[in-house]
Amino acid sequence: MIMNSNLKKLFTFTCLISVLCGCNKHKGPEEEEEINKKPPESGINLVEKGETQYKIVYSNESPTIITAANEISSFIYQASGVSIPCYLDSGEVFNTSDKVISVGNTTIYKGSGLEITTDMHKTGYYLKRFDNTLILNAYDVNGVIGGAYDFLNYTVDLEFYSDDEFELTKMDRVPLLDFDMKFIPYVDVRGILQKPLTKQYNQRLRLYAGEGKGHWITFAHTVIKEYLPFETYGAEHPDWYNSTRDQVCYSNEEMRHEMAKQIEKRIADNPDGQYVMIGHEDNWSMCTCDKCTKEQEMYGGYSGQELVFTNKISEEVDAWLANNEPGRRVEYVFFAYQTSQNPPIKTQLVNGKETPVLDANGNYVPYRDDFNIRDDVIVIYCPIDADFSNPFNETTNTAQYNQLKGWSDIFHGSNLYNNILIWSYALAVRDYMVPLNQFAAFKDQVKFYKELGACYVMDQSYYDSCIPCFEALTLYCKAKIMYNINQNYTDLANDFIEHYYGPASETFKDYYNFFRSYYASKNVSGSIWTVLSGTNLWPLATIDFLMELMNKCLAEIEPLRNTDPERFTKLNDRLRHERLTPIYLYLKNYSSYLTYDQKVEYVNDLAKYTLQYEIVGTGEGYNDMANLVNEWKNSLQK
Q1: Is the separation of the CB atoms in 381 and 407 below 8 Å?
Q2: Per-residue buried b or exposed e for 617-636, using 16+ beta carbons within 10 Å of the residue's own CB
């Protein structure tokens, strides 16, 4: 199908306007700063004339430390042809004349005089040269491996674009740079819930990867499903639950003691775990017994009741920890979600409208001044109804702005400034095959989260199915932004496209930028509930244009078929993976307009590449792709 020339000119003009006025807008002041400025050379070489005098010494507290050491050795070898040998720490002393890279909590590090400070949190790291000796360490092993990859980025220009695409510079001489770094990531703990992410892929993107059984001891909706199943406890203790048996009765002390015991068992079973979730079930129910109703009135609503309950769980379980695992710290997380999204703050009627009470500094006033939140209690705020195409401020996403500001002010009232976890969203729950309108707005959202005290941002993306639309690109850009906010999202996207799509990159930029400009021109919401695959948004001519761009990309890589068959196959698969979006839109909405040969081509591509890329559903929990493919295949026989 060919788009007429007038429409083509219109779309080209739309893309140009987007590039000039939107997608490539001038960088803000923070983006003008030098990003990842490379340290100067020290005059010492790690590799020279085909050999090395260096060794890597690593501590043995974690498999991740061993991985960090091995990755340094492996990529130095790939850059230079020389492998730096790795040795387990055997008690070596700190001696600046020794040619050694110390990784982790080694005796060399302990003798260096460096100390991990509280402002480094979990994933901040030291990367510091003392004459011949280089020290790399952090509080958390995720900080160590992040520092290892940063060391390789500075030293041999190593950059990971995806799980199967990286770049580095080949060099005969590998210099030891004059590192003197105390690096603190913008967001301390960073996570993306997306299906393609393996542990290695997480680590290479500097995302947080748990050890052993994982850093979450329990996760998400836990109070009944995980701790107190009704079928186990309900007959003997019906008063532990609300009337519909789908939430617990938070005012019931006996129930709380049993939940604490269940949490203790799970803590003991996961020695590497750091977070316990006291998460209400995924519904809008709550207990309305007389005692719960009274507590909700006392504490400023259901959210205040959950906060106080979590505080009591923390106190009880911490006492158990002190006796059974002294020195271990666990953090207790409760939901600000659905029924508990609004913070427990004071309000007053102003012109008939309930309005938050502000103190002299413009902060929300906690409903009670005696919440006394414990320092290991964390709220996980879930802005599920936000429009993720826009920032959070007083004019866009106002409800979410006020909610998170309220939670932030409540925790600040207990002198806690790093106790907010954000569960953000990045999936079109009803339309996995078409991209959500978020793109560069993510950076402004992350800045807002951080400014209000977020220690952890977890982005719920397409966790139950892979997708065809900018999957690897979005992962890359989001991970980079959360790690170092002083980067421009569009610059990151362009750099990714150039490396990931090779000779087709300029045309693919047009394809990518078209979505951004088209969504802006159509005022498409970034709500996760938006239906994105309908004919109201995608007239036939528009899909024709998308397919024309993707076919042009395929033509641009065609010369590689003979000159570099392996590269051709990789790029061809990637582009056909992306091309599934217009294919799906055609088959779903305009199948009758396709020729028989087009239908055969598109259905065969859909069958092949959804299987190859593990695209199993067209929406959250749908798991319908195999049936759709069969349905469209069968239609070809009629």
Answers
A1: yes
A2: bbbbebeebeebbeebeeee
Tell me the DSSP string of 107-121: HHHHTTT----GGGT
Nearest partner of 381 among 295, 299, 427, 445, judged by Cα: 445
> Using an 8 Å Cβ cutoff, are 89 and 108 in contact?
yes
What pTM does this model have? Answer: 0.94
Q: Residue 111: CB partners within 8 Å, gap ≥ 6? A: 93, 94
The conformation of residue 282, written as its DSSP 8-state character, comes to S
User: Which is nearest to 383 in space by CA: 367, 366, 398, 394?
Assistant: 398
**What are 52's two structure tokens?**
């090395």
Under the banding of pLDDT at 50, 70 and 90, the label for residue 211 is confident
What is the predicted pLDDT for the residue at 637? 86
Q: Where are the beta strands (DSSP E) in 344-432?
A: 347-350, 353-356, 377-381, 420-425
Query: Is residue 157 helix, strand or coil?
Result: coil
Burial 541-560 (b: 16+ CB within 10 A, else e): ebbbbbbbbbeebeebbeeb
Q: SS3 of 417, please? A: coil
Closest among 423, 408, 429, 416 to 458, alpha carbons compared? 423
Distance CA 170, CA 172 (A): 7
